[in-house]
Amino acid sequence: MDARSYVVVLEPEPAGGYSAHIPAFRGAHTQGDTIEETLSNARDVITGYVEILAERGEPIPPSDLRARNDKLRHLRDAVDAGVADVEAGRTKPLTDELLRAIAQRGRRLSKVRRSGPT
User: Fold this and answer.
1) Are 9 and 111 in contact (CB under 8 A)?
2) Does one domain contain both 26 and 47?
3) 0.90 surpassed by pTM
4) Domain containing 28: what range?
5) Does residue 63 contact residue 38 with C-beta atoms inside 8 Å?
6) Cα(22)–Cα(24) distance, integer angstroms
7) Per DSSP, what are the bridge partners of residue 20?
8) How far is the C-alpha of 35 from the C-alpha of 32, rounded, in Å?
């Protein structure tokens, strides 16, 4: 099987430690005392989930990395097109789609900063 990467969403718990869920796998949650432990537990959850899907002959979710790269490529193409318009003297307003993409990326970066190591 090819290597796959999946998003793991970490959240600090009020009483200490971290919880995590893996959006690609419905109902996949785990926790740990440290970020490292939580990520290790998430890897175990993903491995177990994939093994069960394979045993049942069910499809394994595609890598989140591939989907993320496709989204980034689309965003980069939109930005490049906007830059080309500005350079050619053809200004045009940002599309709603591009504004949503920029806002979404900002929210994701904000989550990473809050959830990541300090």
Assistant:
1) yes
2) yes
3) no
4) 9-56
5) no
6) 6
7) 10, 30
8) 7
